[in-house]
Description:
By secondary structure, the chain is α+β, with helices and mostly antiparallel strands. It has helices spanning 24-32, 39-48, 83-93, 107-121, 156-171, 182-193, 236-249, 264-273; strands at 17-18, 58-61, 69-72, 75-80, 102-106, 126-136, 149-150, 197-202, 205-215, 219-227, 254-258, 276-285. A twelve-stranded mixed β-sheet has the order 1-2-3-4-5-12-6-11-10-9-8-7, with helices on both faces. The longest helix has 16 residues, at 156-171. It is globular and about 60 Å long. Residues 1-11 have low confidence and may be disordered.
Amino acid sequence: xxxxxxxxxxxxxxxxxxxxxxxxxxxxxxxxxxxxxxxxxxxxxxxxxxxxxxxxxxxxxxxxxxxxxxxxxxxxxxxxxxxxxxxxxxxxxxxxxxxxxxxxxxxxxxxxxxxxxxxxxxxxxxxxxxxxxxxxxxxxxxxxxxxxxxxxxxxxxxxxxxxxxxxxxxxxxxxxxxxxxxxxxxxxxxxxxxxxxxxxxxxxxxxxxxxxxxxxxxxxxxxxxxxxxxxxxxxxxxxxxxxxxxxxxxxxxxxxxxxxxxxxxxxxxxxxxxxxxxxxxxxxxxx
Length: 287
């Protein structure tokens, strides 16, 4: 008997198509029903709407957003759908040269979608199949570091040094590859200018950093958490993340992040802050 996930023949079911601009209200309701897991996409939709000409990616559906929904942009993010919907998303994603650098989302959606894409996209560079999705809707349980603050625009060079170190350590590639780091610098500059990059400085050097990488109306997703190697094991990460989480919660939002299951040190730190698991993500790194 053939497995439901076996990527052989293309489906003859209805194809996935871009969601119409007129369906914005329904899309927002769908995203609002799962505000933590959908934070990355909700933030984009709330800011740019559904017009794909903005360059912020596009949403696909097979029938309607309430039944199936998938975001396609820098990442491919399945948000809702059954087996046939996932097949339709895989079919559409496989029609053109791949532009997505990863497949990420709820484990029960991201992993089956990746299995269907594998014959077209080829092997993953890395598969992170078990990533607890954590949330905190109240002030942190751990002491917050009062020295963690928003990064100023004139501090970008010092902050960027830490951000690059974090990226290489976490993702395994140098974000300066290809364009000399211009794209990554623009991303960091944008986060700093919007007040979403946080750090603690010691003698002019970053010893703790984190960003609120996605900010929707209901959730702030913390990303890029990093502690300078010389300061690890001293509670810097716990206190720093408590400070950033408190800043998110103070706006009336839920603070969120996801972490690799095998990163026991980080998981213990986040648990001390008060984060609790509400779902499981998976990330397939392609580039």
